[in-house]
C-alpha cells in the first residue's frame, strides 16, 4: 500500500512534468529535495484545507489568510521635523563603497559545454555539439548560466589592484541556480570558498554581508526560530557566523546564531543617524503586508535612513518611496544593484557607490554610483584577456545634479517623456546586453511602474503613468522579466 508521502511525491512529479516545468529527472530530484520540508510544514500548519488549496492553487480554490493585512507598531513619539537632503560642504571627504551581489558560483560550470540546454541551468557537463565557438565561453556565457570560480577570482583580483574602498556590502546568493540537486555540503562549500576569496583579495577591507534566498537548501527554505533540530537553519547560520567572524560585530554574529534575536539587536541602533539598510530581496518583491509595513517604517524614519541597498533581481534598477499621505513627495530610494552572475543573458557586473564620508555631521548618503561590467563578447574572444570596465556613472549618464530621492523621481518623469533617455536606461538595466526585442509601450509602462513601486501590489503608485494599463497586466509583465 502506498504511503501518503509517496503519493504526494508521485503526484508532484506528475504535475511538474505535465506542466513542462523541467524534464522528468529534474522534477523527481526537486520533489525529493523539497518533499521533507513541505510535509513537515503541512504537519505543523494551522491552515484549514480551503486555505491550503488557496495557497497552492489560487484564490478561486480558497482564501489564504497570510495575505491579509496587518500592521507593525511604530513608536508613539512624534516624527522629527523634516530636513531636506543637501550636498556635503565643500572639501568634505567622501567614501567608496564596493557593492557585490548575486555571485551564483556554479561548481559544475564547464567551458565549451552546451549553453542552450533545456534544463533550468546550462553551461555544465560535456562539450556542446557543433563548432568550438558554439560552447560556453571560458569567462561566462550569455545564456541561462551562472559563473565559474575563475571569473569570480578574476573580479576580486581586479578589485584588489584598483583604487581603495572604505567598506563593502555583500548581499548574498552565493550558490548556483541548480536548485533541484543542491545539498547542504554544496551550500557550505560555496559560503566558505567565496568568503575565503573575499578575505584573501579584499583584506583588510570591512565587509558587511547579508543573507540571500539561495543560501539555503531547499532554496528559500528558512524555517522560523521555533523549528529546532536537523530541520532548523542552525547548520547554515552557524556556518555563516564562523565564516564572517571579524567582519561583523559580536551582536550581529549572535543574531546569526540565534535568528529569534533579530528584533532586540536592531533595536539597539534606533537612535542612530545616517543608517544604511542592506538586504537581498528588494521591498517591492516581498509579500504585500511585509512590504507595506516596511514602507511605513521607511516613511517614519526617513530622517534616520540615509540609504537602502539591495540585489536579487540581477538587473540595474531602483525602487522609489513616497510619503504615505499623498504618494507624491519622494522620501527615499532603494538602490538595486546588478548581479555578478550572467544569469540570464547578462554581462557580469558590480557596483561602486560614492558616499558622504566619515566626519562629524556627515549624512552618509549616496552622492553618486558607478556600474562596472565584464563584456563577455570581448573577454571570450580568442587571445583576449578579461577587462572589467565602467559601463556608466549615474550623475553623468542621466544628467543629475545629485542622487537624492527627488532626483530619481524627476528622472522617472523624464523617462516618461524622453524616449532616448529611457532606452539608455534599458541598456544599463541589462548591464550593456539588452534583449533584441526593444522595450516599448506596455513594457515601458510596466518598468516605470516597478521603479515607482517601493511596496508590492499597489496600483495607486502607477496611476500617473502613461499608457494606463490594467494593474494585473503590469504584474504579469513583471513576472515575465524576473531572472532570480
TrEMBL record:
Q: How is the cofactor bound?
A: Binds 2 Zn(2+) ions per subunit.
The SS bond pairs are 16-27, 117-122, 123-145, 439-443, 449-462
Where in or outside the cell it occurs: the entry states: Secreted
Cofactor(s) the record lists: Zn(2+)
Give the UniProt record's GO annotations in the biological process aspect: ceramide biosynthetic process; sphingomyelin catabolic process
Q: Can you name one GO molecular function term for this protein?
A: acid sphingomyelin phosphodiesterase activity
On whether Disulfide bond is a keyword of this UniProt record, the answer is yes
A cellular component annotation (GO) from this entry:
extracellular space
Transmembrane stretches, start-end? none
Q: Which residues bind Zn(2+) 1?
A: 102, 104, 173, 314
Entry keyword set: Disulfide bond, Glycoprotein, Hydrolase, Metal-binding, Secreted, Signal, Zinc
Which residues lie in coiled coils?
none
Q: Which residues form the Sphingomyelin phosphodiesterase C-terminal domain?
A: 330-452
Binding-site residues for Zn(2+) 2, renumbered to this chain: 173, 213, 280, 312
Q: Which domain of life is it from?
A: Eukaryota
> Domain Calcineurin-like phosphoesterase spans what residues?
96-315
| Family the entry assigns | Belongs to the acid sphingomyelinase family.
Matching entries from PANTHER family are given as: SPHINGOMYELIN PHOSPHODIESTERASE (PTHR10340)
Could you identify this protein by its name? Sphingomyelin phosphodiesterase 1
Q: Per the UniProt entry, what species is this protein from, by scientific name?
A: Chelonoidis abingdonii (Abingdon island giant tortoise)
Amino acid at each position: 500500500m502506498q504511503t501518503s508521502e509517496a503519493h504526494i511525491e508521485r503526484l508532484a512529479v506528475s504535475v511538474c512534468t505535465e506542466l513542462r516545468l523541467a524534464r522528468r529527472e529534474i522534477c523527481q530530484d526537486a520533489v525529493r529535495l523539497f518533499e521533507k520540508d513541505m510535509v513537515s510544514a503541512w504537519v505543523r500548519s494551522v491552515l484549514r484545507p480551503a486555505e491550503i488549496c488557496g495557497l497552492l492553487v489560487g484564490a478561486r480554490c480558497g482564501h489564504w489568510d497570510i495575505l491579509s493585512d496587518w500592521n507593525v507598531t511604530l513608536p508613539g513619539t512624534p516624527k522629527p521635523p523634516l530636513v531636506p537632503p543637501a550636498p556635503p560642504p565643500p572639501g568634505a571627504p567622501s567614501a567608496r563603497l564596493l557593492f557585490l551581489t548575486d555571485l551564483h558560483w556554479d561548481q559544475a560550470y564547464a567551458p565549451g559545454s552546451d549553453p542552450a540546454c533545456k534544463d533550468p541551468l546550462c553551461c555544465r557537463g560535456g562539450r556542446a555539439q557543433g563548432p568550438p565557438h558554439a560552447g560556453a565561453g571560458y569567462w561566462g556565457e550569455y545564456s541561462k548560466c551562472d559563473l565559474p570560480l575563475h571569473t569570480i577570482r578574476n573580479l576580486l583580483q581586479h578589485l584588489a589592484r584598483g583604487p581603495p574602498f572604505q567598506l563593502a556590502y555583500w548581499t548574498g546568493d552565493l550558490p548556483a541556480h541548480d536548485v533541484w540537486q543542491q545539498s547542504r555540503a554544496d551550500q557550505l562549500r560555496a559560503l566558505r570558498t567565496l568568503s575565503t576569496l573575499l578575505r584573501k583579495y579584499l583584506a583588510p577591507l570591512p565587509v558587511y554581508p547579508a543573507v540571500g534566498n539561495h543560501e539555503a537548501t531547499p532554496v528559500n527554505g528558512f524555517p522560523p526560530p521555533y523549528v529546532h533540530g536537523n530541520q532548523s537553519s542552525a547548520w547554515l547560520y552557524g556556518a555563516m557566523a564562523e565564516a564572517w567572524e571579524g567582519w561583523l560585530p559580536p551582536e550581529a554574529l549572535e543574531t546569526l546564531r540565534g535568528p529569534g534575536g533579530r528584533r532586540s539587536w536592531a533595536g539597539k541602533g534606533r537612535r542612530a543617524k545616517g543608517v544604511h539598510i542592506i538586504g537581498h530581496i528588494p521591498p517591492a518583491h516581498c509579500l504585500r503586508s511585509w512590504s507595506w509595513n516596511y514602507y511605513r517604517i521607511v516613511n517614519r524614519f526617513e530622517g534616520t535612513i540615509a540609504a537602502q541597498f539591495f540585489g536579487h533581481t540581477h538587473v540595474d534598477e531602483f525602487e522609489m518611496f513616497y510619503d504615505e499621505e499623498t504618494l507624491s513627495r519622494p522620501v527615499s530610494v532603494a538602490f538595486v544593484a546588478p548581479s555578478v552572475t550572467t544569469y540570464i543573458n547578462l554581462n557580469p557586473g558590480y557596483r561602486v557607490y560614492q558616499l558622504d564620508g566619515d566626519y562629524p555631521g556627515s549624512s552618509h548618503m549616496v552622492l553618486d554610483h558607478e556600474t562596472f561590467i565584464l563584456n563577455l563578447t570581448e573577454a571570450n574572444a580568442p587571445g583576449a584577456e578579461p577587462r572589467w570596465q565602467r559601463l556608466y556613472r549615474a550623475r553623468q549618464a542621466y544628467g543629475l545634479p545629485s542622487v537624492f530621492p527627488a532626483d530619481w523621481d524627476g528622472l522617472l518623469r523624464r523617462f516618461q517623456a524622453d524616449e532616448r533617455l529611457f532606452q539608455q536606461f534599458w541598456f544599463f538595466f541589462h548591464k550593456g546586453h539588452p534583449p533584441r526585442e526593444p522595450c516599448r509601450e506596455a513594457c515601458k509602462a510596466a518598468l516605470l511602474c516597478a521603479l515607482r513601486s517601493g511596496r508590492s501590489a499597489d496600483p495607486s503608485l502607477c496611476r500617473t503613468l502613461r499608457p494606463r494599463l490594467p494593474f494585473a497586466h503590469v504584474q504579469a509583465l513583471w513576472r515575465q522579466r524576473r531572472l532570480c
